[in-house]
Specification:
With 219 residues, this protein is mainly α. It is built from 7 helices and 3 strands, in the order ααβααααββα. The longest helix has 54 residues.
Length: 219
């Protein structure tokens, strides 16, 4: 169970990713095809790249460490109960294997049913505890990750970095966590492509006519 509890912290990465993206990035929004091309002048800024191991950093914070410790303490009684039931199941199996050969079929079947019932209960308890634990870890991780992401971006800005990369992106977090918006060339490339393609923009949509109410009609 200990190994399961430790590994469960990795399941919260997706939540941290969505929270971090929402707080620390401003995505370039493409304009409608029929809109006039915006005058965009991105700047070529000398790159100063920062690297962060985001997930490890969140867990390494004092708040992250405390959150994990509090959750593990919360689940200690459940863990002890599961271990006790597992020990009981093992003991029943050993007793069954040591039954004398002349025991009745009815008694043997009753022993097997008892073992089966307790094994099923053990499996349910493990699954319920794991699901509840994962939920708690995800919520705690997400709260710390939101604040940690904001701190990481502010640090990068305050120290003159232009790009913040995550070295631990394998678990689902984006590789690029933040960048200087002045270097974003998305709209500029869209404008250049439109000019080179020679394809005219769509005509503007006609406004929806506002029908006047008939004279005397209630308003």
């Amino acid at each position: 169970m200990n190994r399961t509890l430790v590994l469960a912290s990795a399941l919260a990465t997706g939540l941290a990713a969505s929270s971090l993206i929402a707080q620390t990035t401003k995505s370039a929004v493409a304009k409608p095809a029929n809109a006039a091309p915006a005058a965009v002048h991105p700047q070529a800024i000398p790159a100063k790249i920062a690297i962060i191991a985001f997930e490890q950093g969140v867990i390494a914070t004092n708040e992250g460490q405390r959150a994990v410790a509090d959750i593990q303490k919360k689940y200690e009684p459940k863990k002890d109960a599961i271990e006790a039931l597992s020990t009981e199941v093992d003991s029943l199996k050993k007793q069954y294997q040591a039954l004398p050969a002349n025991i009745s079929d009815q008694e043997r079947a009753a022993r097997l049913k008892s073992i089966d019932d307790k094994e099923k209960a053990l499996q349910r308890n493990v699954e319920d505890a794991q699901n509840a634990y994962n939920q708690d870890v995800q919520q705690a991780y997400g709260k710390v990750a939101q604040k940690f992401g904001g701190t990481a971006v502010k640090y990068a800005q305050d120290h003159g970095f232009t790009v913040l990369l995550n070295e631990g992106a394998a678990q689902g977090l984006p590789t690029v966590l933040w960048w200087q918006q002045e270097t974003d060339i998305t709209q500029a490339v869209v404008n250049a492509y439109n000019a080179a393609s020679g394809v005219a923009p769509l005509p503007p949509s006609a406004p929806t006519p506002q029908h006047a109410a008939p004279t005397g009609a209630p308003r």
